[in-house]
Amino acid sequence: MVKALVFDVQGTATDFHSTVCDEARRVDAGRHPSVDWAEVVRRWRGGYFAALEDAQRRARGWVSVHSVYRAALDTVLDERGIGLSAAERDELTLAWRRLRPWPDAVPGLTRLKTRYTLATLSNADVSAVIAVSKGAGLPWDAVFAAEMAGVFKPDPRSYAMVATYLGLEPVEIMMVASHKYDIRAAGRLGFRTAFVARPMEFGAGGDADVTYSTEFDLNASDFLDLADQLGC
Amino acid sequence: MVKALVFDVQGTATDFHSTVCDEARRVDAGRHPSVDWAEVVRRWRGGYFAALEDAQRRARGWVSVHSVYRAALDTVLDERGIGLSAAERDELTLAWRRLRPWPDAVPGLTRLKTRYTLATLSNADVSAVIAVSKGAGLPWDAVFAAEMAGVFKPDPRSYAMVATYLGLEPVEIMMVASHKYDIRAAGRLGFRTAFVARPMEFGAGGDADVTYSTEFDLNASDFLDLADQLGC
């Protein structure tokens, strides 16, 4: 029945927390030894989410996610009085284009690709999804992003766009994410749903929701488990 | 300077003529021994082009390329009194989703991928480009199609869309095609241009334009030659 799997990228396929923390420490180069960079990155990601929600509420048209991250970084650094130059902030924002894959991502996707069409649906800019995927070696058959629909997930138009471009009915597509709001939104349109637990999504001190639920068609511990459950 | 290569698919990366001819003979199963299937396929492709131009002139909104091929097949078969059933015509139209790559395509793209972002810009439906690419093993970093812009090549909006999604300036992108109208249109927007000669695009009796021209940044005999010239 399911012919295509559509994946969230930031958090589900890639470990943004450790990547961005490492980049922050590299750019800071030890000048702010008392800063808890893990907490800064969690706040940064939180600011990004709030800005996306705000953009959606105001329906102001498209905003590049790169610019959203850049502005949210200013807020979090300025709140904490962390002095990084504009060039350093630009450089650090590029970390979101260099995200490392979770260790199971490439081997899991490689197995899943033998039987399914694999695509992304990310809120990140198309160019960022391409950069992350190329850098990480994520073997998608197609890259789709909210930018192509002009609205962010969980707007139903973003999922509907994917069904149109895949030429499939929603029931033939499984949305895979570590964020329940994402797969719930796809499920409301008739997509199949797979929840993947990513306990380290926000780092060791984070509070990632990893609770399996029968409301989803599948619950998996990682992409290898997903491949097992889908018979790949 | 160039960071991404954008490829036409039907004819440039894939050998539609031999694939569709073979499928026509398979579906016909010898019932019409006097039919020149190569000529039928050339007329079919011609009917598809005429229909795209017509759609563009009338600006009637999006038409799926699958439906364009299906209607153009009716015309060419009915003109010649070739009796295939509706189911057989549906089956034969699917041949355009199963196109074989030119022998140099996968090895050439694999070399080019080490240095460049590789994407498509096809007039075929997104779902068809995905099906062809997955079947042929074409290792794109991203699949773009005219469907995503809502206008067919050579409409400048289709090339502009690709530049936006790649996050690059036109001069950082090279359009690669065996059709001069396609790379000329991209060139008018500031893209770099590469012409690839495909002498067998319309089969042994076809009249493919394979003349190199200094109006393009590169002229190549196939994707391996393109990789050589681009230092990959």
Automatic annotation (TrEMBL), chains A, B:
UniProt-listed Gene3D superfamilies: 1.10.150.750, HAD superfamily/HAD-like
Pfam families (alphabetical): Hydrolase
Source organism of this protein record: Mycobacterium parmense
The protein's name in its UniProt record: Haloacid dehalogenase
Family annotation (CDD domains): HAD_L2-DEX
GO molecular function: hydrolase activity, acting on acid halide bonds, in C-halide compounds
Keyword terms, alphabetized: Hydrolase
